[in-house]
Design brief:
By secondary structure, the protein is an all-alpha fold. The chain has one domain. It has 7 helices and no strands. It has helices at residues 13-21, 29-48, 56-74, 79-95, 98-109, 114-127, 135-146. It is globular. The model has no long low-confidence stretch (mean pLDDT 83).
Length: 147
């Protein structure tokens, strides 16, 4: 995978930076979908075989790729708005941390679209219910609330 699409290797900081600053160029819709799927597969393989890595930054990567896909499919400008909305929504849903996702995306991209970011993060946070990437987080949350 990494030989054909080196963007899927590592955490994805470079890809995230390029999506935010619009230095990625105009990748085709097919390329973005392939990058999205391969990043999910590469992260899953790495973590399941005991490799070091996390889920936090790859979820930002996936959110950024989804944002670009939405922007291309809907022909939406500015593209950075779609990237910000998708990144904050993905992070809020996967980590179950509403304010962290809003703050991180605002610090990374800038506060220009903060109201939209708050709305997208809140919607995804509440729609996902008790689902999270971090099962121990949910177990601790229920045990703390019953104590």
């Amino acid at each position: 995978m990494g030989l054909v699409y080196p963007e899927v290797l590592g955490l994805g900081y470079d890809f995230i930076h390029k999506t935010i600053t619009a230095k990625l160029g105009e990748p085709s819709l097919t390329t973005l979908i392939v990058l999205l799927i391969l990043k999910i597969v590469a992260t899953s393989i790495t973590l399941n075989f005991g490799g070091s890595g996390g889920l936090f930054i790859p979820s930002l990567y996936i959110g950024g790729a989804l944002g670009l896909i939405y922007a291309q499919v809907l022909n939406f400008e500015p593209r950075v708005l779609c990237v910000m909305l998708a990144m904050s929504a993905m992070l809020a849903a996967t980590s179950k941390s509403l304010l962290t996702s809003i703050t991180l995306v605002a610090e990374t991209v800038g506060p220009s679209f903060i109201i939209f970011t708050v709305f997208s993060a809140a919607v995804s946070y509440f729609l996902t219910g008790n689902r999270s990437f971090y099962k121990s987080q949910l177990l601790n949350k229920t045990s703390l609330s019953s104590a």
